[in-house]
Amino acid sequence: MTIRRVVVVDDHRMLGELLTESLAAEPDLRVVGYVPSAATDVEGLIARCRPDVVTVEIEDSGDAGALLARIAGVRPRPRIVVLTASVDLTRMVAAARAGADAWLSKSAGSAELAATVRAVCEGHTVYPSAQLGAVLRALAGGTTGAADDALAELTRQERRVLQGMVDGARGPDLAATLHVSTGTVRSHTRRLFLKLGVHSRLEAVRVARAAGVRPRHIHPVE
């Protein structure tokens, strides 16, 4: 059994302890640190714990982008799960750009939180389904620089899967478009992640955008 190491970042000590207890009850998850989000050396405290995942509680208001970017800068880079009561699309996009791999409601149960931690460790992006496509399309539309040769090693099918990610398509939609099974899409996804050196759809979209890939179909956000 693979043990996933988790660091909890939260300014509310009591809530942080409750979260720690919830995660610690899972046999494959180990909480290895608690860090106040207001700590001046957040990166250093997290880096010393060498976590696979960092959960970050953010308030309904205010800009958490700087904190998330600092955490995303830790090496080796941990996966980041944002815990919040907000469902604001603008804040979700900002969090994704700053490096957040998941956006989870604070009202979620312990089982859903544990499942999210496991999912991001496996390279999945976990955002509310109603907003995920819009988040990916907004991310693909941002300016991140040039990386013309980033996709050189991808096969034709892997490029099509990556394009679908940029378009905001979900796995079943990609499978239908490519006339393959969802399992085949997952296999292509794992291989392209490996070739691009990324661990999630959001990171893959960043690389694709840097290489000049644009979304083919932009749908209005309702």
Keywords:
2 domains, globular, Rossmann fold, Arc Repressor Mutant, subunit A, 222 residues, 10 helices, five-stranded parallel β-sheet, alpha/beta, disordered C terminus, 5 strands
Describe what this molecule looks like in 3D.
With 222 residues, this protein is of the alpha/beta class. It has a 5-stranded parallel β-sheet with strand order 2-1-3-4-5, sandwiched between helices. It contains 10 helices and 5 strands. The chain has 2 domains: 124 residues, Rossmann fold; 67 residues, Arc Repressor Mutant, subunit A.
SSE arrangement, N to C? EHEHEHEHEHHHHHH
User: Would you count the extended β strands for me?
Assistant: 5
Determine Rg (CA atoms, Å).
17 Å
Strand order of the largest sheet: 2-1-3-4-5
**What is the CATH superfamily of the largest domain?**
Response regulator
Number of domains: 2
CATH topology grouping of the largest domain: Rossmann fold
- Using the 3D structure, state the CATH architecture of the largest domain: 3-Layer(aba) Sandwich
Q: Tell me the helix content.
A: 40-55%
Our count of helices gives 10
Main sheet overview? 5 strands, parallel
Low-confidence region ranges = 143-148, 218-222
Distance between the termini: 42 Å
CATH uppermost class of the largest domain: Alpha Beta
Mean pLDDT figure: 85
Give the overall shape, derived from the CA principal axes.
Answer: globular
Structural class: alpha/beta
Strand content: 5-15%
